Amino acid sequence: MSKDSSIQHMMSYKQLALVLISLLILTGVTVGVSYVHMGIFNVPIALGIACFKVSLVLLFFMHLKYESIAIKVSFLSTVGFLAIMISFTFWDVAYR
Amino acid sequence: MSDVKSFFDTPAPAHLTGIKAWLLTHDHKRLAIMYLWAVMFWFTVAIILGLLIRIELMSIGPTIMGAKLYNSAFTLHGVIMIFLFIIPAIPAIFGNFILPIQLGADDVFFPRLNLLSWYLYMLGGLLAIVSLFTGGGFPDTGWTFYVPFSVTTNHSVPLTLTAAFILGMSSMLTGLNFITTVHRMRVKEMGWMQIPLFTWSLYATGWVQLLATPVISITLLLVIFERAFGIGLFDPDKGGDPVLYQHLFWMYSHPVVYVMILPGMGIISEVIPTFSRKAIFGYKAIVWSSMGIAVAGSLVWAHHMYTSGISDTAVFIFSLLTYLVAIPTAIKVFSWVATLYKASIEMTPPLLYALIFIYLFTVGGLTGLVIGAAGTNIHVHDTQFIVAHFHFTMFGGAGFAFFAGLHFWWPKMFGVMYNIKKAYIAATLITVGFMFHYVPMFVLGMMGMPRRYFDYLPQFAQGNALAGIGGIIMVIGLLLMLYNLVMSLREKVVAPENPWGGVTLEWSVPSPPPVHNFVTAPSVKDYPYDFSEVLKKAAQS
Ligand code: HEM
């Protein structure tokens, strides 16, 4: 097995600041849309923005974008696993 | 034994001496030995508890204990067998010892983390002991800790839960260590499809350990919080749901049965080709079925809950999924049997245990289909049928695979050979006792005898008497097996480097191996189960 994936990837301050600013703007957007009433879309939209923010943090601040495929697959499988556990439990509760 | 200094004589790190060379070691092999003794201690304790339960059931009425003590006895038997024996046994002992060597590595990726896992294991065990003597009495909830009873009983539950929590952490770190080791420490020449099957099975297991264990950890913490603060998570009066506990509990505890059995299947996949002198049938099928079991096995947890009031839709889906797990399992059994077909079989104690494994595990698996079907499940739920089923899978399956591994790798670990004849006698006693112990329990369950009761109606007397005799024979066999292994350390009949004619890398290093495992650089075969050289040598001699 090669061990060359240990090379560190450095992000510039500019890139980091850009991510930070987008996160702050998105926080503002979250607060903003909470004043707009969109019926059943309220929750999905708030969750959508939150997911986008989480992805930014994971990709850039936590370096997932620069990691090897094994780490990415590991991460995605944990998310998938969690999603399955929650959704399967809902089958029970929703149809009881 | 060869003239190379073994790891027993070479502390790692090198400056350590005496007991410190063990307690602060980073060497995966020393840690494996330390796990071995700790696990064996707990196994013996739990066997004795099992025997006491069995003797209690031999005649009607309180025989050697009353109802309260019985509740604690089966709880302790279950908790110890599950959390301190069968979950850690194969990964922590053989995984630690063999996995790095099979990969051509000199240690696991995180040796210090490995040491921490051992300490967590010991701490969990210690807490389990402390929990016996603190609080309002021995824990009495059954190993499943179901609410609302586990929240309301005044017996010592929180500390037992904490012990299980810590043991979970130990298991998870071991899994993490193995996954990382497989990815990062393999010798360069070894591709994914050249990894030996035991290591493959530990890799699949590692993922289950890593993904499922946090669920039980949180769940156990929730029960502790519930007891301490009465939050009402599982209390309908406060808007909670007791069935939620069962979901959370089985989300871990079902996948964990695959943590028990997958490494066992890995051992069998090593033993069978070695003594068949033949490439394993369907290497890739076995690899993919391991991964398939790891994934599918994580999706069937609610089949423990058909009678708990979950929705019919959920019952239908989980029943269907449960049947699907049978497919990858059957693929493995088929491959093992096909490997044996027309092979030049050499009978040895490890192979005998492996053959018994196939039989007992198949019975366990097929009775699993009886209870996986929602209809028949209702009839036998919470009866002795269930107890018989899970002993066939966990004990007849994972337990016998562990015994096969013990007899297979013992010469490698200690450089000594045990008494073969005694090993056969022990295996026979255990198996005969096993059948007499658990087959009557299937019948009793069908007749309606519930589990977790210290007493029963007269119509169940005959079956229980028979099971009692079987239980005693089985325990005698188990003790003989352990005695035989321990005595081999005193008698010191030297074992050669490769007593069985194995072809995976651990058989190319001295017995016991030196501290860095390999004397010469490991040479990886194109195909891990290529016996042509072994056969050539046999033909020459
Ligand atoms: C690898 C070995 C074994 C494992 C993993 C194991 C595991 C378990 C577990 C998890 C339970 C359920 C406890 C509960 O209901 O909370 C149980 C119950 C029981 N075990 Fe074992 N066991 C093993 C060996 C033995 C042995 C050696 C004996 C007897 C000599 C034994 C006798 C029993 C009996 C009689 C019960 C039923 C108690 C009842 O429901 O009333 N087991 N075992």
Features:
heterodimer, A: 96 residues, mainly alpha, 3 helices, B: 541 residues, Cytochrome C Oxidase, Chain A, two-stranded antiparallel ribbon
Question: What does this 3D model show about the protein?
Answer:
The complex is a heterodimer of chains A (96) and B (541). Helices cover 71% and strands 0% of the residues of chain A. Chain A is mainly alpha-helical and 96 residues long. Chain A has two domains: 13-62; 65-96. In chain A, α1 (13-33) packs antiparallel against α2. The relative contact order of chain A is 0.08. Residues 1-5 of chain A have low confidence and may be disordered. Chain B has helices spanning 20-23, 28-56, 67-102, 111-133, 149-152, 158-184, 197-229, 242-253, 255-276, 283-296, 312-340, 349-372, 374-380, 384-414, 420-447, 461-491, 532-540; strands at residues 416-417, 493-494. The longest helix of chain B has 36 residues, at 67-102. In chain B, 67% of the residues lie in helices and 1% in strands. Chain B has 17 helices and two strands. Chain B has one domain (2-364, 503-540): Cytochrome c oxidase-like, subunit I domain (Cytochrome C Oxidase, Chain A). The two termini of chain B are 21 Å apart. Chain B has a two-stranded antiparallel sheet with strand order 1-2. The model of chain B has no long low-confidence stretch (mean pLDDT 93). In chain B, α10 runs antiparallel to α11. Chain B is mostly helical and 541 residues long. The site of protoporphyrin IX containing FE has 24 residues of chain B, from α2, α3, α14 and α16.
The portion of residues forming beta strands of chain B comes to under 5%
CATH domain topology of chain B: Cytochrome C Oxidase, Chain A
Shape of chain A: flat
Low-confidence stretches of chain A: 1-5
Treating each run of at least 4 consecutive H or I residues as one helix, how many helices of chain B? 17
Mean pLDDT of chain B: 93
Query: Over all CA atoms, what is the radius of gyration of chain A?
Result: 18 Å
- Number of separate strands of chain A: 0
Which second-level CATH architecture of chain B applies?
Up-down Bundle
Largest sheet of chain B: 2 strands, antiparallel
Radius of gyration of chain B: 23 Å
| Helix/strand/pairing category of chain B | mainly alpha
